[in-house]
């Protein structure tokens, strides 16, 4: 059991089932520049668009290509759906007790969350809000600060190795969902579960939350 005051969630493959959507975004982009998707797919999850493009090749690391990916992503994310049981989990949290920390641009994150039926949280830390994206700790440090909490009083929920590393570096207790990567790839997380149905959330009389394994 872990006790905490606030929660910080990634978006893609954590709250929103965007695994196939993200693959399609980059497949479409690859066709526009003649890059084989198979050679760059390992760079796409858990990174800012700019960082993914830099990994593929510095010739693609420019505003034109970033905007091209954003345009494709904003359209594709309209098809996004919620991760099973994510709505139920969030319904137990107060509106001031959770935030987003995503590598995605704000417009894309907003589109996917709203398409999946979520009410946008008051705090959303997106790609534009940090100089260094995941796996640097900046997104989670900034989210904790905006929530008025210390990172060690926050539980981070992630799905990618870079996201887990980012949250751990920030000092958050980190839960990894097995929605996009293997248990071995996520082994640095404090707790690994298949999905939200394996988590039980309760609220204490003093306003803190306890997270237990449901079974």
From TrEMBL:
Protein's organism: Vibrio chagasii
GO molecular function: sugar-phosphatase activity
Record SUPFAM superfamilies: HAD-like (SSF56784)
Protein name (database record): Haloacid dehalogenase
Organism ancestry: Bacteria, Pseudomonadati, Pseudomonadota, Gammaproteobacteria, Vibrionales
One Pfam family here: HAD_2
């Amino acid at each position: 059991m872990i006790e905490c005051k606030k929660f910080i969630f990634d978006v893609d493959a954590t709250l929103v089932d965007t695994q196939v959507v993200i693959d399609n975004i980059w497949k479409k982009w690859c066709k526009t520049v003649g890059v084989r998707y198979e050679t760059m797919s390992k760079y796409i999850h858990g990174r800012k668009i700019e960082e993914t493009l830099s990994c593929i090749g510095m010739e693609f690391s420019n505003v034109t290509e970033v905007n091209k990916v954003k345009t494709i992503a904003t359209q594709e994310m309209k098809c996004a759906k919620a991760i099973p049981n994510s709505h139920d989990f969030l319904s137990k949290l107060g509106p001031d007790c959770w935030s987003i920390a995503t590598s995605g641009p704000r417009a894309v994150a907003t589109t996917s969350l709203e398409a999946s039926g979520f009410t946008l949280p008051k705090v959303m830390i997106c790609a534009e809000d940090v100089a260094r994206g995941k796996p640097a700790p900046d997104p989670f440090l900034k989210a904790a600060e905006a929530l008025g909490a210390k990172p060690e009083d926050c539980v981070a929920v992630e799905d990618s190795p870079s996201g887990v590393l980012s949250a751990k570096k920030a000092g958050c207790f980190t839960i990894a969902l097995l929605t996009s990567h293997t248990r071995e790839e996520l082994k640095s997380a404090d707790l690994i579960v298949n999905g939200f149905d394996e988590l039980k959330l309760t609220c204490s009389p003093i306003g803190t939350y306890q997270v237990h394994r449901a079974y």
